[in-house]
Amino acid sequence: MASKEGGEKTKNAQGTGDNKEKRRKESILDLSKYLEKSIRVKFAGGREAAGILKGYDPLLNLVLDNTTEFLRDPDDPYKLLDDTRALGLVVCRGTSVVLICPMDGMEAIPNPFITQEG
Q1: pLDDT per residue as tens digits for the range 2-58
Q2: Does a structural domain hold residue 36?
Q3: 10 within domain boundaries
Q4: Are 63 and 91 a contacting pair, CB within 8 Å?
Q5: Is 5 a domain residue?
Q6: In whole angstroms, what is the distance from residue 93 CA to residue 91 CA?
Q7: Cα 76 to the center of its chain, rounded Å
Q8: Share of the chain above pLDDT 70, in %
Q9: In the chain, is it the N or the C terminus that has fewer CB atoms within a 10 Å radius of its CB?
Q10: Residue 97 lies in a domain
Q11: Beta strands of the chain (E only): which ranges?
C-alpha cells in the first residue's frame, strides 16, 4: 500500500512538472506585431539574415520568406561584407537565434567605442 501511495505522489508531482514545462515554453516575445513585416535576425556564430516573417512558435523557430543572407568576411567571421545571397523561404531554428529586430526604423551608425587614431 505504501508503494502505491508513493507512486501516486510521483504521478502528481510529474503532473505539476508538466504544467511548469508548458508554462516555460510560452514565448516571452510577442512577434505577432511583426508578422508579414521585414525583420533582421542575427544567429549564434555571426550569421545574419533578413526576410519577411511568415510564422513563429513559442520556441522562437521562425519562418522567413524572401530571405537574404548577409555574407561575412572570410578573415573575420563577425565582419559583414556588402555582398548578399538570396535564400528564399527559410526555417530558422530558435535555439540559434540571438537577436530579432524590425527592418523599418533600423539604420547603421558608426561605432562610438572605436577610438580614432591620428
Answers
A1: 545 444 444 444 455 555 555 555 667 788 999 999 999 999 988 899 999 999 998
A2: yes
A3: no
A4: yes
A5: no
A6: 7
A7: 23
A8: 74
A9: C
A10: yes
A11: 38-43, 48-56, 62-72, 80-92, 97-102
CB neighbourhood size of 49 (10 A): 20
Band (pLDDT 50/70/90 cuts) for residue 85 is very high
Is the pTM for the entire model greater than 0.85? no
Distance CA 52, CA 39 (A): 6
- How many folded domains does the chain comprise? 1
* Entry field: residues in the chain: 118
Three cell numbers, residue 32: 505577432
Q: Which domain holds residue 78?
A: 32-102
Q: Which amino acid is at 43?
A: F
Count CB-CB contacts under 10 A for residue 48: 17
- Give the pLDDT of residue 25: 57
